[in-house]
Design brief:
- The chain is mainly alpha-helical.
- It has one domain (10-75).
- Helices cover 46% and strands 0% of the residues.
- It has two helices and no strands.
- It has helices spanning 10-13, 45-75.
- The two termini are 23 Å apart.
Length: 76
């Protein structure tokens, strides 16, 4: 039987119900995502649309995954 401690994004926990959260009341980490673009890209409409879509879809996916974590925690 093995054991270990690691740092995992909350949203990944919904796919791994066998993992157990520990030290949640003592440790809290936040994350940030950055989209870095060359300044010349701002002139290209297709790249602006791509960046807007990427940001929107990433935010929506984070909301979906975090909701899955909350639902899994409520079932536990």
């Amino acid at each position: 039987h093995g054991a270990g401690v690691g740092i995992v994004h909350d949203f990944a926990l919904a796919a791994a119900p066998e993992l157990q959260r520990v030290l949640a009341d003592r440790i809290s980490l936040t994350r940030a995502f950055w989209l870095i673009r060359h300044q010349d890209d701002a002139r290209l409409d297709r790249l602006n649309r791509f960046a807007e879509n990427l940001v929107r879809e990433t935010r929506a996916e984070m909301v979906r995954l975090e909701a899955a974590v909350t639902a899994a925690e409520q079932r536990a």
